[in-house]
Design goal:
The complex is a heterodimer of chains A (224) and B (324). By secondary structure, chain A is mainly alpha-helical. Chain A is built from 7 helices and 2 strands; from the N terminus they run E-E-H-H-H-H-H-H-H. Chain A has one domain. In chain A, 73% of the residues lie in helices and 5% in strands. The longest helix of chain A has 36 residues. The radius of gyration of chain A is 20 Å and the shape is globular. In chain B, helix 2 runs parallel beside helix 5, helix 4 packs antiparallel against helix 7 and helix 6 packs parallel to helix 10. Chain B is flat, with a radius of gyration of 21 Å. Chain B has a domain of 210 residues: Four Helix Bundle (Hemerythrin (Met), subunit A), CATH 1.20.120. Classes of the chains: A mainly alpha (224), B mainly alpha (324).
Amino acid sequence: MEELGRIHQLLIPFMGYTITINLEPVMMTWIVICVLLIFGFLTIRKRGMLPGPFQVIGEFIVSALYQLTEDAMDEELAKKYSPLICALFMFLVFSNWISLIPHMEEPTKDLNTPLSLGLMGFVLSHYEGIKAKGIKAYIQSYFEPMFFMMPLNLIGELAKVVSISFRLFGNIMGGSIIIMVISYLSYSLILPPFLNLFFGIFVGTIQAFVFTMLTIVYISVQVK
Amino acid sequence: MEFATHTWIQAAAYSSAGIAIGFGAIGAAIGEGHTASCATLAVARNPGKAGEILKTMLVGQAIAESSSIFALVIAMLLLFSNFSAESYLTVATVFSAGLCMGLGAIGSGIGSGFSAGAACTGIARQPAYSSRVMTNMLIGSAVCQTPAIFSLVTSFILLFTNFSARPVSPTWAALLGAGLSTGLAAIGPGLGGGYVAEASCEGGARNPLTTPSVINVMLLGQAVTQTTAIYGFLVSCILMFKSFPATDSIAVPILLLSSGLCMGFGAIGPGIGVGVSGQGAVRWIARNPNAAADITRTMLIGMATAQSTGIYALVVALVMIFVM
């Protein structure tokens, strides 16, 4: 049980500062990216009217996520953002599933990954918001309904980043802690595969979907 | 009378085990009773499907019970583990773990029971689509358990992390506050998530063709409902992992304890309120799927407003921890 909350870090001294790199998430992120690249390559290798198995899966994911994006935004924005949304969803799904393979750990278990993805959505949504409403109306929206509500509106916006990233982080990290503790208590008998099924596949997929949906919604709420 | 540290820890562990399973038994029992009541209604309406309704009821009750089982696991751990007697802090961690899991199991148990009940009546209404209704219920009820899972994680961290290097004086209150924050904050969101899942099971049975979009909005609604539980979990994480300097004054420990209390209580209302608004949205999308985009937008804006009180609690809790 000593490994609860322990992480492997690479410390690089650089001009008086220390650069800290969490090794596991970085390595696992690269593995996920490689898997996604191979998957993408396989889907486009033999394109045709009679699709192969990979093309069917790829077309299904792309069209489902495009539809989801278009339901929330208008067509022009949906065309612009659906590739990003699709990539985000697939990255998160593969990241959350990777712990099914022994000795692999989810990159989303480290707060840095969800937080950076959440910040990406935050920056994009505000960029689109400023572009759609104009800078004046955008700033004015913080002073509604009363001017003194400004700090609270600001904190409300920042709380969105906290909630979106901690939701993913908490679920995935919580799942892995529960799997670890219960495996330890039950001497790794019987229970761990079912726990992996629930926390890895089920919760992992749902949380990836929720993160993607919330990113879409944050962008669309800013634009409208 | 003077007792050894070990005695205090044992006493705390026993009383905390009682609290964990005592509070933890409340929610699941209410939820399961509600499910059974809906199942009797469903059987009265459609006696031909009694077998299937009974099966759905039992599955739904099993999911609702899982939050209570989490509490049972923690209670058993507290009763039968040997805790290190290095520091008095173990008294606080042990007590806090039991409180956290006990309180955290209440909301999710009741909430999952609502969605299972709606699934039973839905199957009586629309037997041809029973498998869809069942899937809908499984997803909704499982997501409902998230706040209870946060409580379980916080309890595990409290029980299995070694805090003995920290100074006793403010840390005992921080650890107690951490348990209270996640535990109390799980009540509202668990209940609210159940409201959303209930509307989704009911709506999916009423209008089976809308099931995919209803499930999407349900997941979105439940995710926003759980935001305040996440704030509670965030405050607990800060309280558990930030090291506070030793102090003799009683004011600092009380400040840390009340920051946990503040976030915990502040999260109850927004969780329920946001859940009610999600319930409305999912219910009316099932009846009028063409207005789904507008309903979802209205729901999200309403939720953001309903959630603002939870954000006030978060701000006050963070000010208490970092500024004071």
